[in-house]
Design brief:
alpha+beta; Jelly Rolls; 11 helices; 15 strands
């Protein structure tokens, strides 16, 4: 049966690509020169090497609010250990209801299902601020710098301000952002405590007005061995909390090798960002990760980014410091400059002492 299914899938792909959905971004038209250069060049080896699938550390967060002191301590220790050794972990019993997650996914799919022209013009009827809808990689200078994906990258204030008319999507986005924000602050506090710091830094600096929600869609890709869904990168924030669907694709670097994260429908994925690596003085790791493309299935995910204001100074909590002090605005500016000039992010190595 499996060979028959594979054969049918191979037959279906050219038909799908010959008649792309009107909701798909025009990747081939916009990046035609990159595709032509790729055809004319000597064939490069595929960008994706084989990656073993694994389970991330799985942590039951209900123990943080349990009555047993030992149970809470063990949970905090597991969070810190995963953040040191992996930079990623999965969280279950995280306090975000299945209803919220399912509603978020349903409304997200509806938003991306709009015709491309509606999405790209002030995000259609969603009326998010200019620039919230993004797709591809405008700075790409070769095919391998092109991400085969689209996203709504929305400041949380855009949602809570009611700028999009109080739609069902905005209501569920606001609820999702509020509940995930609470979770992100709980995790940040745990990580600070495990370093011996009773810190109010994150509550004071990472406000709803400075954080972001990003809805992602990865359409079926005609060249999955040559194109990323999302290029390898680290996150330029303190923490990222991700809700993904059952379609695999997320991969991260562990012990110098790429490994594929096995989807868990009951778990949220939490990862350390660049700013927390600096704040922890390299104790917690911001790990490179990517999304591989899929020739058959579209993939959806929603990410919450815990960020400070641009004028917030990021400094290490212990000495001797590994990194020099810098503002978040300075960091973002340097990342954007590198992406524009080089086609990729350099990130923390720019700020080493």
């Amino acid at each position: 049966m499996a060979p028959l299914i594979n054969a049918l899938q191979k037959l279906a792909l050219p038909m799908r690509m010959a008649n792309p959905s009107p909701s798909d971004p025009p990747f081939r038209e916009e990046y035609q020169s990159l595709f032509e250069e790729s055809r004319g060049a000597t064939r490069l080896s595929p960008i994706l090497s084989a990656a073993d699938e694994c389970e991330l550390p799985l942590i039951d967060l209900s123990r943080l609010s349990g009555t047993g002191g030992r149970e809470r301590a063990d949970c905090k220790s597991e969070i810190a250990r995963a953040s040191r050794e992996w930079g990623f972990f999965q969280a279950v019993n995280h306090g975000i209801s299945r209803e919220i997650l399912d509603d978020m996914r349903r409304e997200q799919v509806k938003a991306f299902d709009q015709p491309f022209k509606k999405k790209s013009k002030e995000a259609g009827h969603l009326k998010f601020s200019a620039g919230c809808y993004r797709w591809g990689t405008p700075s790409a200078t070769c095919l391998r710098q092109l991400s085969w994906s689209e996203a709504f990258h929305v400041p949380v204030t855009d949602i809570s301000s009611g700028s999009n008319g109080g739609s069902t999507l905005s209501s569920i986005m606001e609820l999702f952002a509020r509940t995930v924000s609470d979770l992100s602050h709980r995790i940040a506090e745990v990580l600070a405590e495990e370093l011996g710091h009773e810190s109010t830094f994150f509550l004071e600096k990472c406000l709803p007005s400075t954080c972001y929600l990003r809805m992602n869609r990865y359409p079926p890709c005609p060249m999955p061995s040559d194109l990323f869904g999302l290029m390898p990168h680290t996150d330029s924030d303190f923490l990222t909390i991700l809700h993904q669907d059952e379609v695999g694709g997320l991969q991260l670097v562990k012990d110098g090798k790429w490994i594929a994260v096995k989807p868990n429908p009951d778990a949220l994925i939490i990862n350390i960002g660049d700013l927390f690596q600096v704040w922890s003085n390299d104790v917690y790791k911001s790990v490179e990760h990517r999304v591989v493309s899929n020739p058959w299935a579209e993939r959806f995910s929603t990410a919450y980014f815990l960020c400070p204001s641009y004028d917030t100074v990021i400094t290490s909590c212990s000495r001797p410091a590994v990194y020099r002090e810098f503002s978040f605005g300075e960091y973002r500016k340097q990342v954007q400059l590198d992406v524009k000039n080089l086609g990729y992010k350099i990130g923390l190595p720019r700020f080493l002492l």
